[in-house]
Design goal:
6 strands, alpha/beta, 7 helices, six-stranded mixed sheet, Rossmann fold, 128 residues
């Protein structure tokens, strides 16, 4: 059974920052298969980061390339905060990939599994 993995903005930048293929790592961690999704607000956050220029622009460029290649689904939402939208959208059975500790705590309370980067080289799923 495919599991939906909702990618937080900070997690989408991991490949450029840490040189880790998060998509392969998530696929390895979920042998039953995954389908990738992200909130529409994450796309907007990436655009704002790219507008800053410098290192962020290169990181966002890589993230956008991989998002297109992996055909990451965009989830529309009305909530202003991307974190709030993720908490509203995520359900048991989903995995949320994030490095945000506050968001991880909120998802744990809701019973949603979380994927995190460990030792700067692999992804681990924390089961709620």
């Amino acid at each position: 059974m495919l599991r939906r993995v909702i990618l937080d903005t900070n997690f989408l930048l991991v490949p450029a920052r840490e040189d880790v293929d998060i998509f392969s790592e998530l696929e390895r961690a979920c042998p039953s298969g995954v389908r990738f999704a992200m909130m529409e607000g994450s796309r907007i956050e990436l655009e704002l980061l790219a507008a800053r220029g410098g290192k962020e622009r290169a990181q966002v460029k890589l993230a956008n390339t991989v998002i297109r290649a992996k055909k990451v689904e965009q989830i529309l939402h009305q909530v202003q905060s991307v974190d709030d939208a993720i908490v509203d959208e995520a359900q048991r059975g989903d995995i949320v990939a994030t490095m945000d500790l506050k968001l991880r705590r909120r998802l744990k309370e809701k019973g949603v599994d979380v994927a995190v980067l460990r030792s700067r080289n692999h992804v681990e799923i924390i089961v709620s």
